[in-house]
């Protein structure tokens, strides 16, 4: 099996951009990062599913062909698209609720998490 180097580079760039955006503090950037990461994973699954342009199922009249595409990869990607859309809708609802309450898109540090991080660093929590 041969793979398209250009498509692999595009998938790598999408994963890198997605991870960078997921690590941001703004909810809208996190959502865009999750969507980019999901699309990169879908492209990777489709790419390893078989050669493009071939039918997924040939039927019983034709012998099994070596270059036949894998229908399981296509079904998994369709399911992943639906799940990604559901997650995007949920995060959009959370972002809207957060913006309605705090009028900002930024996620603030939790005070308990800050205290635990201070204890790990060796700082005195009583200060």
From TrEMBL:
Keywords noted in UniProt: Cell membrane, Membrane, Transmembrane, Transmembrane helix
The organism's place on the tree of life at top rank: Bacteria
Main subcellular location of this protein, as a coarse class: membrane
Record region (Disordered): 107-127
Gene3D superfamilies: 1.10.287.3510
Record's compositionally biased regions (Basic and acidic residues): 116-127
Segments passing through the bilayer: 6-23, 30-52, 72-96
Subcellular location: Cell membrane
GO CC annotation: plasma membrane
PANTHER family according to UniProt: ANTIPORTER SUBUNIT MNHC2-RELATED
Family membership: Belongs to the CPA3 antiporters (TC 2.A.63) subunit C family.
Family matches, as NCBIfam families: PRK07946.1
Stated name of the protein: Na(+)/H(+) antiporter subunit C
Organism in which the protein naturally occurs: Nocardia panacis
């Amino acid at each position: 099996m041969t793979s398209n180097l250009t498509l692999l580079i595009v998938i790598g760039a999408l994963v890198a951009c997605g991870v960078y955006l997921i690590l941001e503090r703004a909810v809208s950037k996190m959502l865009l990062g999750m969507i980019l990461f999901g699309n990169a994973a879908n492209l990777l699954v489709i790419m390893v599913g078989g050669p493009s342009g071939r039918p997924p199922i040939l039927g019983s009249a034709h012998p099994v062909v070596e270059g036949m595409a894998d229908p399981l990869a296509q079904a998994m990607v369709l399911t992943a698209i639906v799940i990604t859309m559901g997650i995007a809708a949920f995060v959009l609802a959370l972002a809207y609720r957060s913006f309605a309450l705090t009028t900002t898109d930024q996620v603030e540090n939790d005070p308990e998490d800050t205290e635990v991080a201070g204890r790990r660093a060796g700082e005195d929590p009583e200060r």
